[in-house]
Fold:
Amino acid sequence: MNNDILKALLDAEDFVSGQELSQRFSVTRTTICNNIKELRKAGFVVESVTNKGYRIKENTRHINAALIQRYLKTQFLGRTIYETEETESTNTCLKEAWGEGCPNGALAVTHLQTAGKGRLGRVWKTERDSSAIMSYILMPEISPKDISAVTQVVGLAVCRALNRIFPSLNCEIKWPNDIICKKKKLCGILCEMSAELDRVNYIIPGIGINCDQKSFPEEIAFKATSIYMETGVFPDKNLIVAEILNETESILFSSGFAFDRKLISEYTMLCATIGRPVEFMRNGEKLCGTACGITGDGELIVELANHETHLINSGEVTVQGIY
Ligand code: BTN
Structure:
């Protein structure tokens, strides 16, 4: 699809004739017709009226870089967008782009991931166009020890963005960064990074938000939900992606990568894990306690019945009452 033709139609307030488009972009009328067909295939509703031309009546709600750009208020996040029909994983796509010198803040979005990755080596599988699939790359010039809570910060930005667009969802965070709605998972986040001892090369947060699913396979139906299932609305994935980047950049500009008191307090309010009984493994032993807070490094603070406290920084925690 020719993005210039799309942008011209998006910018126009009225019909644009095929002749005008073909002259402006030095392409044949057949090329214009083919582009209109592609736009319709991508989900745009395009009106076509003899002697008037074409007009976009309704935008697609599926991933489209030009639409994401229109919602962005950022200075650097998402200012370069890699959009693919399908890719193994948007995280992998950005790792490759980093090797080729992509800019800080570049965004990768796709319609289908063929080898999506989840946390703890799991697989993240979604149908074409059913989810908002995105990754972005950050290249801060800081030491790895200064980004210890980055996954929590990313989770907080996603939670804020979803609650801003759909207040009725009342999204919460399951530590460290699953986004949940009524105790079911709505969104998963996988943060990958590459670093030297004293220098971060890149951080790639990859985010998958369940949007259009009407149901889930039996094995996960008890613990997964989608925006459609919760609201009855098929959401605009481009608005979701852009709002996540807008929120993330606003946090980065005000706090850098520090998980400061303000952010910790907001995270704590939104974190469904805190206040609940949890189980975790320590030196091969299963321990039970109550999650009672979060540290500036993003660790979960768990208090056992004997008042001993433990800090958990990774791995799996079983939370009573949530999947
Ligand atoms: C999890 O909850 O296990 C994390 C899931 C993360 C999925 C997203 S989808 C976009 C990005 N690309 C991937 O391969 N994974 C992340």
